[in-house]
Every structure is written in structure tokens, then in C-alpha cells.
Specification:
Blueprint lengths: L2 H8 L3 H4 L3 H18 L14 H14 L8 H25 L11 H16 L1 H16 L3 H31 L1 H16 L6 H8 L3 H25 L3 H9 L4 H12 L1 H17 L1 H4 L7 H10 L3 H26 L12 H4 L1 H19 L15 H14 L1 H25 L2 H16 L1 H16 L3 H31 L1 H16 L3
Helix pairs in contact: 3-22, 5-8, 6-7, 6-19, 7-17, 8-9, 8-11, 8-14, 9-11, 10-11, 11-14, 12-13, 14-17, 16-17, 17-20, 21-24, 22-23, 24-25
Length: 513
């Protein structure tokens, strides 16, 4: 490669790059280690230089939640009004699924009606296999005494998912029509999706308080970005021939969007809806910290009490809800359109709907005659929690001679040295090496962005917690590679093992964090 070609490929950085990354990294390491002993502030950022960002944010949110005003009304009054509006659909979902209207003696839907309904829906979408999965999943929740809690969780899901899908749909459409909006939305979603689940709770609690609606709003903020991303992707990947055909047919811009582009991108949009469902249920346990009732709250309580058996029962119930909604949405995305011959009777075209109405009426009648068919009484439910707790204690006691040495070896020879190494590193070395890597891979813009993001950690006094987090992530990554790579190679060579491992992985990935 000539010098001119190199400069074309790498810009003005071509000459330094030819030195090689490793020699440059060694120079940076030598300079930073020398500075660590010569200038103490290059090792640990002085406490008196720390920017009090935490105090500023605390004061800002206190002002926002108590004093901020638009003139006619305060921010607090606005947020409480939004909470009041959203409480209505949530209330009616709860009335339908588990609460009923006690003042007039109106019961909620019996568990056999919901179990039969989801089985009929599964059969309509994809046949008997999906119907069986849906029915058995509902049966599990009922016979293990988790029905009221499961329906409370489902109430939040059936309200949050449509809201997140609609908001994501309109944000995605707006972003496709405006490059500036798309750039802003993409950057915002990158931040939102990199934000830990727990971080959504703070602003929500300050602005909306505690309860079901604040929990639903935290879940909404977490679940909406994937939908908007899928809308952007789906509308952008509609073939130009389809769009041009719509224009030639005389479609207005609105007709072109809703009658041509959206239907053409339907599968991608339904994939986004599927992701909304998964993200909503992923927040089930965390949202319970701000007042969400249901399976998430029960699971959190069980874990706090170290009741592993009960926690497993409740976690499997959440997983089954996630799997059912996931399979239903995925199957619907690929469901072929039903076509009937001209003159087909209405009853033949809507036999699943008529069957559901029949099951619904029969369920209410049966539940009136046999109350156990409305909600199973405790004496008719089962639990494997105590047996599982006993098994876990037995295994922990009898397998300690294996678990203890492995745990101690990993802790002493892997984790603790890694922790001490990361805590030893001066901030200048971390900023220098990461900035050098960013410049080498993507130029000065990427180097400056990485340097600024890393610098934020010590500028606001978070350097030690940040390095502890990096140490934990690095340790987990190394262990995952050591376990996952050999397991993946084994699965690639043995189909039976692959089926078992993939089933376990699917279960673990849908199990609440």
C-alpha cells in the first residue's frame, strides 16, 4: 500500500497507526504508571475536585416533584392527572381478570373461562399444539394457587403492551419521516436500553409516587423502545416497488402509510410487539419495588425470605405467561390470511368466536354451581415449594465438598486478583487505553466520546463503584466463555444434546432476572 493510499484509508492518522497499536499502548501504560507515582492526582481523582452531580440531581428532582410549575398547574398535578387517567384501563382490566365488582356482586372471569379462551385463541392462530401449551400453562397457574397473583400481573401486561405498542408505532413513523427526529430518537433509545432496569424507578417514583400505575409507567418506558426500533426498521425495509405501486394507484400519503407500508411491514411490527411483551414481563419483579402487585411482588418476597421453592413456582408462572404471549404473537405474525368462498355462513367464518362465547357462558354457569371453578380454593391447590426447599438444602449440604472448593478457587484465584487489578489501575491509564482503542478503531470522534464517558465516572465520584462493576462484568464474561464455548461445541456435534441445552436456555432466558 502506498503512502497516499494509506492516508486515504486512515486520514491524517496513517503515520501514527503504522507504529502499531501494541507499541502505542505500551507507551501509554509506561507514561500513566510513571505519573501514578509522580503525581498522586493522576492515580485517584481528588475528592475536592469531584463534581457534586448527585446532589444537583437530588435537588432537581425534589424541585421537579414539589415546586415546578407550568403556571396554571404544577408538574406534580400534571403527573397525578396522568396517573388518574391511566388508572381507569388498569382498573377495568383488574375487574375483568381477578377483582370483579363486589358492590353489585359481579364476579371476575372464572379461571376455566380464561384457560379455555387462551386455548381457543391458540388453536385459531396455530392449531392444537399451541392450544395445548396455552391451556396447560393456565392450568399450572390455577392448580398451584397462583391465579389471583397471575391475573394481577397479566392486568398490567394487557394495559402496558397496547400503550407501549401505540406510542412506539407513532414515534417510529415520526422518526422515519424526519431524519433529525430519527437521530434524536436513536440516541435516546440507545441510552434508555443501556440504562439498568432499576434506574427507571427513581424518576417514576419522584413524579408519580408508588402503586400499580407508577409501576406500569416504569414498565412502559422500558418496553417501548424496541417497538419504535422495529417500526423504523420495518418501514425502511419496505421495497421501493411496493411503495411506488401504491403511489401509482393514487394513494394519498396517509393511505400510502396505513394501507401499503404498514401492512407490508406487518411481520417486523409484530416482532416489535413480541419484544414489548417480553420486556414488560422482564420488569415484573423489579416493578414490584414501586408497588406493582402480583407474581413479581410474591417472587420478590419469596427471595427475600430465601424460600427457593416458592420463588421457583412463581418464577415458572411468570415464565409460562411470557412463553404463551411470545408464542401467540410469533404465530400470529406468520398466520396466513383466512379466505372463505363467497356465501360462506357467518357462523362458519367465526366458529372460534362462537366457541369462545359458548365456553364463556358455560364457565359462568359452572362457576356459579361449583365455586372451585371460579378460583380454586387453597385446599385444592398443590405446591412443590417445600419439597424443592428440602432438596436444595440437601444438595447444598451433601455437595458442599465439590461446591466449596470450586467456589473458593474461583474467588481466590480469579475474582479477587481481578478486583485488585482493576482497583489498582489509575484513571489516566483507563482513559488513555480506551481512548487509544477508540481512536484506532474509529477515529478521534469515537476516542473523544469514549474518553468523555469514562471521565464522567471519576468526575462525579463513581470511579471505585464503576471499576467494581467492570470487574464483575469481566469475571462473569470469562466464566460464560469458559462454560458456553465448550457447551456450544458439544451441542454442534450432538443433536440430542443440542435439543436439551436449547430447551434449558430458552427457559432460563425467559425466567425473571
Amino acid at each position: 500500500m502506498t503512502v497516499a493510499t494509506a492516508e486515504t484509508a486512515f486520514g491524517t492518522d496513517a503515520s501514527p497507526r503504522r507504529i502499531g497499536f501494541l507499541p502505542m499502548a505500551l507507551i501509554v501504560i509506561a507514561l500513566c504508571i510513571a505519573a501514578k507515582f509522580a503525581l498522586p492526582w493522576t492515580d485517584r481523582w481528588p475528592q475536592e475536585w469531584v463534581i457534586p452531580l448527585k446532589a444537583w440531581l437530588t435537588s432537581f428532582f425534589a424541585w421537579l416533584g414539589n415546586e415546578a410549575s407550568f403556571g396554571l398547574f404544577t408538574v406534580k398535578e400534571l403527573t397525578r392527572f396522568i396517573s388518574h387517567l391511566l388508572s381507569y384501563p388498569l382498573y377495568w382490566a383488574e375487574v375483568l381478570l381477578f377483582r370483579g365488582v363486589r358492590d353489585i356482586g359481579l364476579p371476575p372471569l372464572p379461571w376455566i373461562a380464561i384457560a379455555g379462551g387462551v386455548a381457543i385463541l391458540g388453536h385459531w392462530i396455530a392449531g392444537w399444539r399451541l392450544a395445548l401449551l396455552c391451556g396447560l400453562s393456565a392450568l399450572y397457574i390455577a392448580i398451584f394457587g397462583l391465579w389471583p397473583d397471575g391475573m394481577q400481573t397479566l392486568s398490567i401486561v394487557v394495559v402496558t403492551v397496547p400503550l407501549a405498542a401505540l406510542i412506539g408505532l407513532f414515534i417510529g413513523i415520526w422518526a422515519v419521516r424526519s431524519p433529525r427526529v430519527e437521530a434524536f430518537v436513536t440516541a435516546s433509545f440507545d441510552v434508555l436500553q443501556a440504562t439498568p432496569h432499576m434506574a427507571y424507578l427513581g424518576p417514576v417514583v419522584v413524579l408519580f409516587g408508588f402503586g400499580q400505575v407508577p409501576a406500569m409507567l416504569a414498565t412502559l418506558g422500558f418496553a417501548m423502545p424496541p417497538m419504535a426500533r422495529c417500526v423504523i426498521l420495518g418501514l425502511k425495509t419496505v421495497s421501493s416497488e411496493v411503495v411506488e405501486a401504491g403511489r401509482m394507484a393514487g394513494c394519498t400519503p396517509r393511505q400510502l402509510l396505513w394501507k401499503v407500508q404498514v401492512p407490508a411491514a406487518a411481520q417486523t411490527l409484530l416482532l416489535g410487539l413480541n419484544q414489548v411483551v417480553m420486556q414488560t414481563l422482564a420488569m415484573a419483579v423489579i416493578a414490584s419495588l414501586v408497588g406493582a402487585s402480583g407474581l413479581g411482588q410474591k417472587l420478590l418476597f419469596s427471595l427475600q425470605q430465601l424460600q427457593i421453592g416458592k420463588a421457583t413456582e412463581q418464577g415458572i408462572a411468570i415464565t409460562l405467561i411470557a412463553i404463551v404471549l411470545d408464542r401467540l404473537s410469533q404465530a400470529y405474525a406468520y398466520k396466513p390470511l383466512s379466505r372463505f368462498a363467497s356465501g360462506t355462513p357467518w357462523t362458519a367464518r367465526h366458529r372460534h368466536l362462537l366457541l369462545f362465547l359458548g365456553v364463556l357462558l358455560a364457565s359462568f354457569l359452572a362457576a356459579y354451581l361449583v365455586p372451585a371453578l371460579a378460583v380454586l380454593p387453597k385446599e385444592m391447590t398443590f405446591s412443590y415449594g417445600p419439597a424443592l426447599d428440602t432438596a436444595v438444602r440437601w444438595f447444598s449440604k451433601n455437595a458442599y465438598w465439590i461446591i466449596g472448593p470450586v467456589r473458593d478457587w474461583i474467588t481466590i484465584w480469579l475474582l479477587l486478583p481481578m478486583r485488585d487489578f482493576y482497583l489498582f489501575l489509575p484513571w489516566t491509564l483507563v482513559v488513555g487505553l480506551l481512548g487509544l482503542a477508540g481512536w484506532w478503531l474509529g477515529g478521534w470522534r469515537l476516542a473523544m466520546l469514549i474518553g468523555l464517558l469514562v471521565a464522567c465516572q471519576f468526575l462525579v465520584g463513581n470511579w471505585v463503584p464503576a471499576m467494581m462493576t467492570v470487574y464483575l462484568v469481566t469475571g462473569a464474561t470469562i466464566l460464560c466463555i469458559l462454560i458456553g464455548v465448550p457447551l456450544g461445541v458439544w451441542c454442534s456435534r450432538n443433536e440430542r444434546v443440542a435439543r436439551v441445552v436449547m430447551a434449558i436456555c430458552d427457559t432460563l432466558q425467559t425466567f425473571p432476572s
